[in-house]
Design goal:
By secondary structure, this protein is α/β, with parallel strands linked by helices. Helix content is 41%, strand content 17%. The chain has twelve helices and eleven strands. An eleven-stranded mixed sheet has the order 3-2-1-4-11-10-5-6-9-7-8, sandwiched between helices. Helix 1 packs across helix 12. The longest helix is centred in the N-terminal third of the chain and has 19 residues.
């Protein structure tokens, strides 16, 4: 039986409705899952949704000016309600996985959202620490910290947090079929700190975390300088690369060779959640220029995770 997948259409003034509808028209998506969409009715109809495509659960923003795409309080409130409504439906067991189209952090702030973005919101709702990952072909990269200012990294990177994220990463890779995955961990400082000359985070937090992880049986290597870690991962030396901050993962991921789109996913929640690894792209919204490849990949990835997940 095909898994039931719920898709939030994202900010109604961004490209979310367009890539959602385009992805749902893909025969591969129709074969992989039974989808439903939650979002703004006017935006989805404008993008080409019809009742024949899939069920629609409306979370309408009211009057929107589609000629002037951008962050608005109305758009932020509607996309936030879609996500919180979707969360309730996932918790009720009506759907097996969630796919989220891009939202605007600025619009969510205008709407008074309790969290700046999806992962932060799910952390609040679930009261547990999730893991943010990105997969693209053979690349699997995860984050220890997410949307954190660089100046705050040193205090945030504790031994306990690194261990927690590494164990979640191993579990996530296991869900992809890797029985005993190997994980490489990036260093924070240039040259992995050069023995403390260029920073002590490797000595004080990262190496002790890795020592304890290896003692528990986890195949965890590092800390490696970012360039060496990425080169080795791209060459197949590790199943997963644990990065310490946002751009340490995202910049190499997006410029790595290969045509496969990246999928952003969250592990450690009570349900699988995926999304395309890009934003609202207000600059091209409602110009029929948005590429649905990332959204298509996210839906197919969610269907794969849902199919492998045991019934609750």
């Amino acid at each position: 039986m095909k898994p039931d997948i719920l898709i939030t259409a994202g900010d109604p003034l961004g490209i979310g409705p367009e890539i959602t509808v385009k992805a749902l028209l893909n025969p591969a998506v129709r074969r992989a899952c039974s989808p439903a969409v939650i979002g703004d009715t006017a935006a989805l109809r404008r993008a080409g949704w019809t009742p024949a495509l899939c069920p629609l659960l409306p979370e309408d923003a009211g009057r929107l000016n589609f000629r002037r795409p951008g962050p608005t309080e109305a758009g932020g409130a509607a996309s936030l309600r879609a996500v919180t409504g979707a969360y309730c439906l996932l918790k009720s067991g009506l759907f097996r996985a969630l796919v989220t189209a891009p939202v605007s952090k600025e619009a969510w702030a205008l709407a008074g959202a309790p969290a700046p973005a999806h992962t932060d919101l799910f952390r609040l709702l679930e009261r547990r620490e999730p893991l943010m990952l990105f997969s693209r072909g053979r690349i699997n990269a995860a984050l220890v910290t997410e949307h954190l200012p660089v100046k705050d990294l040193s205090k945030a990177l504790t031994k306990a947090l690194i261990k927690e994220k590494a164990l979640l990463f191993a579990s996530a890779l296991g869900a992809l079929g890797l029985r005993r995955p190997s994980i490489a961990v990036c260093a924070l400082n240039p040259h992995a700190g050069d023995g403390g000359v260029i920073g002590r985070e490797e000595i004080d937090a990262i190496r002790p975390a890795l020592k304890e992880l290896r003692a528990s049986g986890l195949r965890a290597g590092g800390p490696l300088p970012s360039d060496a870690a990425w080169a080795a991962h791209l060459a197949g030396a590790s199943d997963g690369l644990l990065c310490l901050y946002h751009d340490q993962a995202l910049a190499p991921l997006k410029v790595a060779p290969g045509a496969a789109p990246a999928v952003h996913w969250t592990w450690g929640l009570s349900f699988p959640r995926t999304s395309p690894a890009h934003g609202t792209a207000f600059d091209i919204a409602w110009k029929n220029k948005a590429d649905p490849a990332g959204m298509t990949a996210a839906i197919l990835f969610a269907a794969k995770l849902a199919a492998k997940r045991k019934n609750p």
